[in-house]
Known about the structure:
By secondary structure, the chain is of the alpha/beta class.
Amino acid sequence: MKAIVYTEGGGPEVLRLTERPLPQPGPGEVRVRVEVSGVNPTDWKSRRGGPPATVAEQVPNQDGAGVVDAVGEGVDPGRTGERVWLWEAAWQRADGTAQEYVTLPGAHAVPLPATASFDTGASLGIPAMTAHRALTVAEGGPARLAPGVLGGRNVLVAGGAGAVGHAAIQLARWAGAFVVATVSNPYKAELARAAGAHHIVDYTAPDPAAEIRRAAPEGVDIVVEVAVAVNSGLDLAVLAPNSVVAYYADNGGAEFTLPVRETFARNLRWHGVLVYTMPDAAKREAVAAVTAALRDGALRSGEESGLPLHRFPLERTADAHAAVEDGVVGKVVVDV
Ligand SMILES: NC(=O)c1ccc[n+]([C@@H]2O[C@H](COP(=O)([O-])OP(=O)(O)OC[C@H]3O[C@@H](n4cnc5c(N)ncnc54)[C@H](OP(=O)(O)O)[C@@H]3O)[C@@H](O)[C@H]2O)c1
C-alpha cells in the first residue's frame, strides 16, 4: 500500500511517498481504509520537529475518514464495513492517516453517519474536539454539548473563518448559544456567517469591543480564543462576570499579561486548551457530542457551510502541508 512518511524534521520536502506492507490490526484495534486525510497546523508543526526519538518513520496527519476493513482481537467483527471518522491517529503513534490503510485503537474510529461526507469526517478530530473542549470549560458546564445546553449564553469565536473557529461556531449554534465571531475581511465574514454566526465583527476595524458589546450587551460568557496574546485586551473589554476565555493557540504572540485586580474582581478565568492532553473524560464527551451534532446535520464542510475545501492527491501531501503552513482559508484534505 502507499504511504507518506518522514524520517527527519523539516519543510514539506521531507515528506515522501513509499510502499509499505498492509498493517494488521492488533488487539482492540481496527484497520481503516482511509478515504480522506485531513491536514491541520499541528501536522506541519509536528513534521517540522521531526519524528519522536522512538519512531524511525512517521506517517503524518491526525485526522481522517474511511471504512473499517478489518478488526483485531476483542473488537466486534460487525464493525467491518463501518464508515468512520478518525481522531488522534498519529498522537504518540507512528501511523497517521496519510496512507491507504491505518490501524488504530477502535475508540479512535467513530461511526460516521451516512449523511456526513468523508470530507466532513476528516475535518473533525482536531478542530471539532478542540472547539468542544473550549465550549465546555466554563464554570457550571455543560460537560457535553447538546441542543439547548448553551441556551442564553453568549459565545465569542475569535477567527470565525479558521478551522477550529468554524467548528466552534457550528457547535455553539447547535447547543443554542448566541454566537458572535471576529474576522479580518469581508470574505471571512461570509464564511463565518455561512457557518452560523449570528453577528460578525471585523477585528481590524476601529473599536471591535464596542461592536461586540452592541451585539451582546450583557457581555460574553465564553470566548473561544485563537490569538490570546494579542486579544487579551479585547476579551477583557467584552467579558461578562464569571466568564471564561478558552485559549488554544498562540497565533500573533507567545505571551500575555492581565490586570490582577480587574480579573479577580470580575471572577474571570483564562483556561488553556490542548486537545491531546485534555482529560480522557473530556475526549469521550467530545466524541459523543460531535457524533450527535453530525447526526443532526449541525457539522458540515464545504464553502456553502463556511469551510472551503482544498483537495490534494496522496502523492501531493507535501503541497497539502505547504498550503496549511501558508495559512490557506478553509480545510485542506488529501484524497487517499
Ligand atoms: N490547542 C489545541 O488543541 C489546538 C487545536 C487545533 C489548533 N490549534 C492551533 O490553533 C491555531 C488555529 O488552527 P486552525 O486549524 O483553526 O487554523 P486556521 O484554519 O488557519 O485558522 C486560524 C484563524 O485564526 C485567525 N486569527 C489569527 N489572528 C487572529 C486575531 N488576532 N483575532 C482573531 N482571529 C485571528 C485567522 O484569521 P485572520 O487571518 O483573518 O486573522 C484564521 O481564521 C493554530 O495555531 C493551531 O496550531 C491548537
